[in-house]
Design a protein that fits this description.
CATH superfamily of the largest domain: Histidine kinase-like ATPase, C-terminal domain
CATH topology of the largest domain: Heat Shock Protein 90
Strand order of the largest sheet: 2-1-5-4-3
Bound molecules: adenosine-5'-diphosphate
Distance between the termini: 69 Å
Structural class: alpha+beta
CATH architecture of the largest domain: 2-Layer Sandwich
Number of helices: 14
Length: about 425
């Protein structure tokens, strides 16, 4: 009732000028005896009544004209729209967000907040939502002052994570159920993980480069000192130095290659690559290497074209890395078989095309399989280095596959060789 009365007063106050003018005109008509005093009084009453209940906003006017909604509903509309408005804002915040009232209890929260606080519900006091003293203290301080307060929290349950919480004041409102504080949460765990990965990567890369560099420096010092006049030693040392320099070059090439692929990972490839032809090209280029180690390298093409959307240079790199690994880590005098195929058969909807590279080497223990595509991960570091490995080949393969929406599958058993299969969406005949 009070709300209706307050709304009527607000509308009359907003229209005081036209109301005063109309009253003066009616008064003048009465004085000039052009209008009966009773009729003038009835007209003034009618004007005030209309002014008191005629909605101020256009939407309300349309609704009033169409006759929908009661006057009580209309009187409530303003606060309702406000309430919907700030709830929508909280819902739209792209991180976890919780709104608290002046008593520090939850009045609204977005969907992401449920991930942070599975037990969250409206009406729950903040102290029951989180037991973290820093967060509870920040809420108390923000309620008492008008400051925005940032706190960093280490949450241990259900999993350990570092979270940044920001407590901000919203506008003061006379209604106790209106939001007074907004707390937004940002999980820094993923950011920390990426920073750690970057730091590990730089440490690994520096270590990989420092080892051959230290060896080169040691040989230079020996050649400048004790071996200065020893032609046989000089010859031997220069050979080792050349191979260390080659190792550094390979590592730098792979690092640059990885960085190039990483930079382009979100750019979809535009070319068309035929896997039978590409696999044949790579096999032909690696044939002399395989032959040198007494390994028979065979290719079994698919009977039908195996076309994918791709970057030919990168697909060559993928197949080359897999065949080089099969030659490096396979059995000396053994065999490496390359196959191209479809699954399900050619031109079916959702068909995938694949290239597999199998060897009859010592195989890989299951514990290593999930980690082989990590940068610098090697089953045996010494053996990889001896064979000219950098530990980056499969990481490069993985990144190229990500860009091509391709997949890698590794099947291996100790003593029974390994099969590395990469697969891609087939490009239809009209693609
Ligand atoms: P690397 O430069 O050391 O060869 P990769 O990333 O290409 O680095 O491979 C990572 C590791 O995976 C290798 O060091 C090796 O231990 C293992 N590996 C890769 N391919 C094979 C294979 N065909 N047979 C056995 N082990 C393999």
């Amino acid at each position: 009732m009070n709300a209706i009365w307050q709304g009527a007063r607000r509308r009359v106050a907003a229209r005081w000028m036209p109301l005063a003018a109309a009253t003066l005109v009616l008064l003048a008509l009465v004085i000039l005896q052009q209008l009966d005093a009773t009729a003038a009084l009835i007209s003034v009453g009618a004007l005030f009544t209309i002014a008191a209940f005629w909605p101020l906003d256009t939407a309300g006017l349309i609704e009033a004209l169409s006759g929908s909604g009661s006057s009580v509903a209309r009187a409530k509309r303003g606060p309702d729209l406000d309430r919907k408005g700030w709830r929508a804002v909280v819902d739209a915040i792209p991180t976890s967000a919780v709104a608290l009232d002046a008593a520090g209890s939850v009045v609204h929260y977005n969907r992401l907040a449920c991930d942070f606080f599975p037990k969250i519900r409206n009406g729950l006091p903040m102290s029951q939502l989180s037991r973290n003293p820093d967060l509870i203290g920040a809420v108390d301080r923000a309620l008492a002052t008008d400051e925005r307060i940032d706190v960093e929290l280490i949450e241990r349950v259900p999993v350990e994570r570092r979270v940044s919480a920001s407590v901000s004041q919203l506008a003061h409102s006379p209604s106790p159920s209106s939001p007074r504080l907004l707390i937004t949460f940002r999980d820094l765990t993923e950011q920390d993980r990426l920073a750690q990965m970057r730091a590990d990567f730089i440490a690994n890369a520096s270590h990989e480069l420092r080892t051959p560099l230290a060896s080169l420096r040691a040989f230079v010092e020996t050649l400048q000192g004790p071996a200065r006049d020893d032609p046989a030693a000089r010859e031997r040392f220069l050979g080792v130095m050349a191979s260390q320099a080659e190792r550094m070059t390979r590592l730098i090439d792979d690092l640059l290659s990885l960085s190039r692929v990483e930079m382009r990972v979100h750019l979809s490839p535009r070319g068309i690559v035929e896997l039978n032809e590409t696999a044949a090209y790579v096999c032909q280029s690696l044939e002399p290497v395989a032959e040198g180690l007494g390994i028979s390298l065979t290719l079994q093409r698919d009977k039908t074209p195996a076309r994918i959307r791709g970057d030919r240079e990168e697909i060559v790199q993928v197949i080359q890395n897999l065949i080089q690994n099969a030659i490096k880590y396979g059995r000396e005098g053994g065999r490496v078989d390359v196959r191209v195929g479809h699954e399900p058969p050619y031109a079916s909807a959702g068909a995938r095309v694949w290239v597999s590279v199998s060897d009859d080497g010592p195989g890989i223990a299951p514990v290593h399989l999930p980690r082989l595509t990590e940068r610098f991960y090697r089953v045996n570091v010494t053996s990889s280095r001896e064979k000219g490995g950098t530990g980056l080949g499969l990481a490069i393969v993985k990144h190229i596959l990500n860009r091509h929406r391709g997949e890698i599958k590794i099947d291996s058993k100790l003593g029974a060789g390994s099969v590395f299969t990469v697969s891609f969406d087939e490009l239809g005949a009209n693609g």
